[in-house]
Amino acid sequence: MEQQQWQTAQEIINNLPANTPEEQDFITIQQINLQRLSAAQNFELDIEQANQLYAIANAYGYQAPAAQALLGLLNGNYYEWAIPQNNSKSAPSLRYPAAQLTGNPYIGTLAIIPNPAAQTAQVTIPPLYRLQQTELHLYNLHGKLMLRQAIPAFAYTATLNVQTLPSGIYFAVLNAQGMPTAQVKLMIQH
User: Fold this and answer.
1) 71, 140, 152, 154: which has the highest count of C-beta atoms within 10 A?
2) Alpha-carbon torsion, ordered 46, 31, 97, 173, to 10 deg
3) What is the CATH architecture assignment of 108-188?
4) Residue 174 in contact with residue 125, Cβ under 8 Å?
5) Which residue in 11, 28, 112, 100 sits closest to 64, CA to CA?
6) Is the Cβ–Cβ distance between 165 and 188 less than 8 Å?
7) CA-CA distances (angstroms) from residue 147 to 3, 6, 111, 114, 150?
8) 3 state DSSP class of 70
9) Radius of gyration of the chain (CA)
């Protein structure tokens, strides 16, 4: 990309492994960045690209800083990380996802893409709840439970099959230990 060899860069991206969510996120970020660089000043994020970047940025996984930086360049979004103070003389040895992110409004954010969804929707599990089994509940506007899906411990994402649900607005609620912990509005449109 630095040498502006867009076709070669695209071939490299196409051949990257995509076996884990982190690898998939890396490819998504690089693909959007390649489009941005090759379009020069005429590039604008479309809704799907924005949703993908926000999901990666707000999930606070390994690829979050790259997604946040790209959102900063393209949309002017600013993400602040609160790293705990280390009073020892040695440098902190926290790995990126292990950093305490106090006061961050996105740390417990549930993200769903695409939104609106027609057939399936990808749910990004907030980092705080990935270590335990959770359950996703989908409610209609009248508060009726329309879908319940168990999510195993250590899951980064989950796929919701929404093709049998009627078009409309729903509330996706993540439950951990029987308590609602995060929610997001989901539109289903067939």
Assistant:
1) 71
2) 40
3) Sandwich (2.60)
4) yes
5) 28
6) yes
7) 49, 44, 17, 18, 10
8) helix
9) 18
CB of 130 within 8 A of CB of 59? no
* Residue 83 pLDDT greater than 80, yes or no: no
- Angle value at C-alpha 41, between 37 and 44, nearest 5 degrees: 80
Domain(s) of CATH 2.60.40.10: residues in the chain: 108-188
Residue at 142: amino acid letter? H
Amino acid identity at 95: R
pTM: 0.47
Torsion angle of alpha carbons 58, 60, 61, 64, nearest 10°?
Answer: 70
Residue matched to tokens 């409004």? 105
